[in-house]
From TrEMBL:
Matching InterPro entries: SWT21/TCAB1_mRNA_Telomere (IPR051150), WD40/YVTN_repeat-like_dom_sf (IPR015943), WD40_repeat_dom_sf (IPR036322), WD40_rpt (IPR001680)
Top-level taxonomy: Eukaryota, Fungi, Dikarya, Ascomycota, Pezizomycotina
Protein name per its UniProtKB record: WD40-repeat-containing domain protein
Gene3D superfamilies named in the record: YVTN repeat-like/Quinoprotein amine dehydrogenase
Native species: Aspergillus cavernicola
SUPFAM superfamilies (UniProt xref): WD40 repeat-like
Positions of region (Disordered): 387-406
Length: 427
């Protein structure tokens, strides 16, 4: 319980999609490409009243101007923030999508081009992996695919859909990495079409290597990846089977080791049944691991592969739904915090989690939604956060059948918040 540690300073909602869509955004000519106009949302906008469609996740562009949101109706929406976002006279601003990219199947993963700039439309790009389709490189400003990349099973000739992707700046914007079933692939963005990845890196050894004692590797769907901030960084890859593998040379090198997180002291306290997210500390020493059906986040010391340092508890995310967390650090990098939402609509903060071993309770919490907060993403600079909410609900034909949810008000929304300066974070 953290009620006695809740801050009295409430966050301010700067913008929200919940506002009634009476008009489009005001003029954004100071921040948008010439000739660009908002998308006509019309029927494609989320149906808040019906609750049948909901936001699944969001992420910030590297320049902090744009949000990319995936929703359960298989649409990816781009939101460009207004230049007067912090103008108190206009709060909360109305958020409507500037571009809507539809898909026929669910999106498994998405990631921005690492050198995204709203002032340079040619760089305003993102990748997305859609079930049973090639990977798409698309414009965030207009619903247009720029290129596609095929990942095909050589035996069945069926498309392999990556469950996670990263497009790190460390690779110079020319390459990106994908994770799928026991496989990590490296793609060259200049090799589009049917050429496939430039490197296939199975996470389990071949049958030949197994026969000569080559090790067991890491079997399972690669569901999360993260690259450490150090030069020639270490790639951490996690699986739904609760394994973590480490690879050097930004993921292109050899395996540094694997470990399993299922048999630790933390399991008795916070549970967990499959890795959904990995985050590196700013110093590159610690790895944060988020899972499905977990009440917290694991902290591992990577200087000693596989050593559990502690865990964050009180997260209240005991659900199969992906619940994205994020990390905030000061400019000096000597302090950082983990931010995450829960199934009851709260956002919580754990300050300096790597400074203490064992269990840690949240330092602050705020009520930000009336449905599960399934995505918490922090602005690249300052105490600005974006949150998305919503959950899958059964559609009943009879009003006598109640919906299986403890929350009475449906809240399927994207919101942008300004938070108080907590724990020395710099705004």
């Amino acid at each position: 319980m953290v009620e006695d540690r809740v801050t009295n300073i409430e966050p301010v909602c700067l913008a929200s999609t919940e506002t009634e869509p009476t008009r489009l955004h005001r003029d954004f000519s100071a921040r948008q490409p010439e000739g660009f106009t908002p998308a006509d949302t019309g029927k494609s906008e989320l149906n808040h009243g019906g609750g049948l469609r909901y936001f699944k996740s969001a992420e910030w562009s590297p320049d902090g101007t744009t949000l990319l949101a995936d929703s359960s109706d298989h649409h990816i929406r781009t939101y460009v923030l207004p230049p007067d976002l912090l103008d108190e006279k206009q709060l909360p601003h109305q958020l409507l999508p500037y571009s809507v990219l539809p898909s026929g199947e669910p999106t498994y993963a998405s990631t921005f081009y690492p050198f995204f700039s709203l002032q340079d439309p040619s760089s305003a790009l993102f990748l997305s992996s859609v079930r049973d389709h090639p990977i798409r490189l698309a414009s965030a400003l207009v619903p247009t695919s720029v290129a596609t990349y095929s990942l095909v099973n050589p035996t069945t000739e069926a498309f392999i859909t990556p469950n996670c992707m990263i497009y790190p700046s460390a690779l110079g914007g020319t390459h990106f990495l994908t994770g799928s079933d026991s496989l990590i692939c490296l793609f060259d963005v200049s090799r589009s079409g049917n050429e496939g990845p430039v490197s296939w890196m199975p996470t389990i050894p071949s049958k030949r290597k197994q026969a000569v004692g080559g090790g067991v590797g890491m079997k399972g769907i690669v569901s999360a990846m993260a690259l450490s901030p150090a030069d020639g960084g270490i790639l951490a890859a996690g699986t739904f089977s609760r394994n973590v593998g480490l690879y050097d040379s930004n993921g292109a090198g050899q395996s540094l080791g694997t470990f399993n997180i299922s048999k630790t002291e933390a399991v008795r306290h916070i549970g967990g049944c499959g890795i959904t997210q990995l985050l590196w500390s700013p110093c590159g020493r610690y790895l944060y691991i988020a899972e499905r059906k977990s009440d917290g986040v694991l902290i591992y010391d990577i200087r000693v592969t596989g050593q559990l340092l502690g865990w964050l508890q009180g997260r209240n995310a005991l659900t199969n739904q992906r619940m994205k967390v994020d990390l905030v650090s000061t400019e000096q990098g000597n302090s950082h915090s983990i931010w995450g939402g829960d199934t009851d609509g709260f956002m919580r903060v754990w300050q300096d989690p790597s400074h203490t071993a064992g269990a840690q309770e949240p330092s602050w919490q705020w009520k930000v939604h009336d449905d599960p907060v399934n995505s918490t993403v922090m602005h690249p600079v300052g105490n600005i956060a974006a949150t998305t909410s919503g959950q899958k609900r059964l559609k009943h034909h009879s009003s006598d059948v109640p919906e299986p949810s403890p929350i009475t008000r449906i809240d399927s929304s994207l919101k942008v918040w300004c938070f108080p300066c907590v724990g020395g974070s710099e705004g």
